[in-house]
Amino acid sequence: MIDFELTDEQKQFQNLARQFARDRIVPVAGEHDRAESYPEEVVRQGYELGLLNTIVPESVGGLGLGSLDEAVIGEELAYGCMGIYTVFMASELGITPLLLAGTPEQHERFLRPLLDGPNLAAFALSEPDNGSDAGAMKTRATFDGDDVVINGSKMWISNGDRAAFTVVFASFDPELRHKGTLAVVVEAGREGFSARKLHGKLGQRASPTAELVFDQVRVPRANILGQPGDGFKIAMRTLDKTRIPVAAGSVGVARRALDEAVGYAVERQAFGKPIARFQAIQFKLADMKIGIETARWQTYRAAWLADRGLPHGEAAAIAKAYASDMAFRAAEEAVNVHGGYGYINEYPVEKLMRDVKLNQIYEGTNEIQRLVIARSLLERRLE
Ligand code: CAA
Fold it and tell me: Which atom of ligand 1 is nearest to the CA of 133?
């Protein structure tokens, strides 16, 4: 049976997140963008409302929300600011490997304390020389008694300089390629661990992004998720889930772009009437609406599959690629509708375009999403 109705609980979260975005995120988003500053107060308020780290399981005191709940909330937060939403989203990215491969004891140690305050998690896969080719990671893990010693560096890590812990992917045997990788939890403050915040991003400037350096960082073997050798697959399974919130955020940005474009088009006069009366503008708005509705249903479908434990990697890749490409086009069209005013930061639309550009790149570029889709499509045909 197909049901297009959200549950009452989902509608409540949607309303809560919508109000929070309107009252708390929208008023400060421009300032955090200009100053490239961490939205500490917003994250604290989000935590107090229960909108942070929502997927932490009930067994350790969390809400235990699912993918569809996350998508519903994510669309609303991103409507307010994609960069601020990325702080929330990247924390759930850091939590997901623990949900997929962590033991109850690891949940107690790492997830329960996360709920004690506006704390964040992070996920460190990409490296200065390896982004799309994640299996070629150079960060090394060496076993030493009951410990693992980590050396190397990670790049483009959202929340990397703020996280209470980071799930780090490293190779313990490069000859085995992906089969020689592990996933390990590294808590902030471990000796030899340092994070350098990166500056000068085009958009999503409220979201802190860092380079992480590991210099003889020693953690107990008990911090390894699953077995040594599982690392790459844990990363892939994580991304299959977390590309869904990226898609949801893209829908939120596109919805905001449409609202801004409509608001401007009904006010702005040209040739003696509001520009919304011209078909050239109406068609842009209609195309934005088509994209938003289509992307949302594909996002919900991927989330629905994930929540039922059904294969969802391909559906998530479709949602992520389609929604982020659509949202970039929508933001660009919102700039076009605004004309010259679209190009100045007194209006919010140029920021939407800068922010959502990243949705086409992170959590696997859209070229990688197409690769995932094509492989799934051709799997059996090219054997
Ligand atoms: N689930 C489970 N297993 C999977 C899998 C999945 N989705 N995808 C691949 N695997 C398994 C394969 O079955 C294979 O297993 P066997 O050896 O047992 O057969 C193994 O993993 C290797 O798979 P591939 O041969 O397909 O691996 P590959 O080297 O060709 O790479 C890839 C595949 C899809 C290109 C992958 O490298 C990839 O997804 N790259 C993009 C990485 C990425 O998304 N990075 C984003 C970083 S996070 C970020 O941006 C966060 C942020 O800060 C916001």
Answer: 37
